[in-house]
From TrEMBL:
PROSITE patterns: SAM_MT_TPMT
Keyword Ribosomal protein: no
Coiled coil: none
GO BP, sorted A to Z: methylation
One Pfam family here: TPMT
Record's protein name: S-adenosyl-L-methionine-dependent methyltransferase
SUPFAM superfamilies for the chain: S-adenosyl-L-methionine-dependent methyltransferases (SSF53335)
Segments traversing the membrane: none
Keywords associated with the record: Methyltransferase, Phosphoprotein, S-adenosyl-L-methionine, Transferase
GO molecular function: S-adenosylmethionine-dependent methyltransferase activity
InterPro entries on file: SAM-dependent_MTases_sf, TPMT
Highest taxon of the lineage: Eukaryota
Length: 287
């Protein structure tokens, strides 16, 4: 399986991925991702669930409403790929929708679900957190920005208690970021919903293009703080300075926590073996 080199060392895999989208208008991107799945070219695939995600939820329970048998919690993983993180969230007690535009990815996720039981992090969680009742997983093919998959699953906007974003936001060009932020805000439970963003790649120069597009903490804050609003970028791909001082809107999400995980996927380490990833937690309020 192809692997993604760490930030700062693009390599041939990233070059081919970027070239697939270089001159294509954004509306054609979903079909291009599907084409890469059909070619079995998936260099973004991590080969397993996010340790950073598992550690955050189990070690910071104060940030999340705990799923119980009588109070099920709904989670969403957009761009779920082979479904590692959707399956992981089910072990943590959530009823999860794993969503991907590519039908090939969804089929891979369905086949991979049983194999996930052999993952060490799966056994680790089951061993130390016996109080959680395992949740269900529903695999859905669909466009994240379209309501079709919501209707098929009987889920309305504002009903997700947890949404996990990793290698999804960074796959969208800057022009699509306001739409992404608005959709996240609309889907999240307004009372205690939590959006978890595993921020990556933080070490990549945004002027080199994407996907994946180089990101920063300020980019997440600018868009999630003002969902749907235009955010200005300079020719270097970075936010213009004025944007970093703009206050959030009334319907914006607030950053409740930003944590450097103790462990993460290999691309989240630098050459010295230090973690470069951050994982941020967002909500409509501090409730």
């Amino acid at each position: 399986m192809a692997s993604i080199p760490p930030p700062g060392s693009p390599g041939p895999e990233i070059g081919r991925l970027q070239s697939s989208f270089l001159t294509s208008p954004y509306h054609s991107h979903p079909s291009k991702w599907d084409a890469l799945w059909k070619e079995d070219y998936t260099p973004w695939d991590r080969g397993g669930p996010s340790l950073a995600l598992a550690d955050l939820i189990t070690s910071h329970p104060n940030l999340f409403p705990t799923p119980t048998e009588t109070a099920r919690r709904k989670a969403l993983v957009p761009g779920c790929g082979r479904g590692y993180d959707a399956a992981l969230l089910s072990v943590l007690g959530y009823d999860v929708i794993g969503l991907d535009y590519s039908n090939i990815a969804v089929e891979e996720a369905r086949k991979n679900e049983e194999n996930m039981k052999e993952e060490e992090v799966w056994k680790e969680i089951q061993g130390k957190d016996q109080v959680r009742e395992k949740g269900s997983v529903t695999w859905e093919q669909g466009d994240f920005f379209d309501d079709g998959w919501l209707e098929r699953t009987g889920t309305g906007k504002g009903q997700f208690d947890l949404i996990f974003d990793y290698t999804f936001f960074c796959a969208l060009p800057p022009e699509a970021r306001p739409k992404w932020a608005k959709r996240m805000a609309d889907l999240l439970n307004p009372e205690y919903g939590r959006l978890l963003c595993l921020e990556w790649p933080l070490g990549k120069d945004p002027s080199t293009g994407g996907p994946p597009w180089g990101l920063s903490a300020e980019v997440y804050l600018a868009h999630l703080g003002r969902p749907g609003e235009e955010v200005r970028y300079g020719e270097d791909g970075k936010l213009v300075e004025e944007e970093t001082n703009v206050a959030g809107s009334e319907g914006g999400l607030k950053c409740l926590a930003r944590v450097k995980p103790a462990r993460t996927h290999k691309p989240g380490y630098d050459a010295e073996g230090k973690v470069t990833d951050f994982i941020s937690v967002w909500g409509h309020s501090l409730a």
